[in-house]
Every structure is written in structure tokens, then in C-alpha cells.
Amino acid sequence: MAQSSAPFLRIGTRGSPLALWQAREVRAHLAAAHGVEPEAIAIEVIRTTGDIIQDRPLSEVGGKGLFTKEIEQALRDDAIDLAVHSSKDMSTVLPAGLVLAACLPREDVRDAFISRKSSSLAGLPPGAVIGTASLRRQAMVKRLRPDIAVVTFRGNVDTRLRKLDDGVVDATLLALAGLKRLGREAAATAVLEVDAFLPAVGQGAIGIEVRETDTRTRDLLAGINHPETLTALGAERAFLAVLDGSCRTPIAGHARIEAGAVWFRGMILRPDGSEAHETARTGEILDAAKLGADAGHELKRRAAPDFFLVG
After folding, report:
1. What is the pTM of this model?
2. How far is CA 65 from CA 85, 91, 142, 308, in A?
3. Least confident stretch, 102-111, 160-169, 237-246
4. How many other C-beta atoms can be found within 10 angstroms of the C-beta atom of residue 282?
């Protein structure tokens, strides 16, 4: 019996429903762009440290990179050709030899407020409990509602919604992009607008990581890349790179491409929401990363010396 041929490409991903949706979406785009059957592109599920640790905030055990490092190791070992990530999970500085090569068109960047007890964050009663695994969401909630308690809330989308139904917390916040991709947008009680609740760097963007020297895969990905998303992500990640000395500092940042220019807004907060600094930039698309980095340097200058200390 003839041996089956090697896969056209090998995609590495986490095994959560959302991660698998993203990997299949990338596979579908690649198959359509290059005239191959989707089944010719293999999807390899890789369990990450972030999937294994469920009992405490990830910021306490390493923060960014815990959902990507095992996948990145498989990429460096040539066990896969490309890694598909939620961009907000990617490390601020990628491992040597790996690059962010492409993005699919960005989904909605906003956060969704979900509650069985209130139609809005503002409507929650004093002392209500919100569950989130995000330091940024915690800080922004406390900034708007210092009377609300925030507790660690881990798990995939379905797990968190089930905990909400069970009354573990009064409300939670999730990325609207993930809900939309899973067909669960109706679960959102309210949508938090970007002006009032700035998203995480990379939120809503699917990032595709490859070996820098793998010209074949990079060329194949060029056929599905969405330049505007990759450019916006470049501005956001440059902002983060300047600030992210500690994974314990809540940071928000969002860039968009509009009328041939980059519009960026960034913010840093104390975890308890008691202090926040924000800034904005507008400029040429070619200067996107410089704009993001410049915004980061400004906030670093404005913040008190102890702002970025762990604790």
C-alpha cells in the first residue's frame, strides 16, 4: 500500500475550542489561496503550560508566553511549520529565530460584559463580584467601579459561562471576538466600547508565527496576510515592548488604520485602578511601530518610579 504524502503544511495550535477554530480558519484561508484541500494541511494540537495551570493567575507564574512556549518550541524543532495564536497571548519578545509573519483580518476588538444579574457594569450593585483572569480587565473595572470585587476566573469560554450560570460570580468579561468566532455572541449582555474600555494589545487578531528562515512558509502566508491588521499589531506590540518589564502591570493598547494613517491609543494602570496614564498617536503607516514605541516611552516617563514594580 502506498504511503500517504507529507502534509502541505503543519499548523501548531492549542486545543481549546477557540484555538481550534482559529487554526481551522487559517487552514481554510491557506487552502483556498493555494489550491489545496484543507485536509492536506495538518493541525497539530499542543498542550501548553497555560492550559495545564488552572488554579491561579498566570501573572503569578510567568504571564505572557505560557499559552505559546510549547508551540514555539515545536516550531523551533521543525515539528510544525507555523503556529497560530491569539495575538494577545504572544510574548512581548518572540524567541530567537521566530517572527510574526502574518495576520488574518481582525475581528471586533471590544470586550463583552456578561451577567445574569445586571444589564451593564454600571448597573451592578455595590460589592458585586466580577471574575476575570486579566489584570487589564481587573484594573479597568476597579477604575470605573472601585466598589466592586474582582476575583480570578480561569477556563475557556464555555467553562466561564457555566461558572457564571452557577453563580460563582455576578459577572465576567470576555473578548467579543472569541464569542463571535464560537457563535456565542448572543451570550454578551453588553458590549464595552473602546473609548471607555481599552482592549488588550492584540485583542481580536489571529497571529501566525513562523521560523524566520522558512522562506517557503513565509511566502505561502503572504497570500493570506491582512496588512492593515499586521501593521496595527506592530504598533501595539512596540508599545508593549517598551513597557512590559513586568507581567504584573496592566497595559491596554489599540491601533487602527483609517484614512491612510495609523491611530493609536495606549494606557497603563495600577492593578487596583487607582492610577492610570494614557496617550494617543497618529501618523504614517510606515511609522506604526515607531508611534507605538514613542507612546510607550511617554507613559514610562509620566508614571511614578514604582509604577512597574511587581507587587
Report:
1. 0.91
2. 11, 5, 26, 19
3. 237-246
4. 12
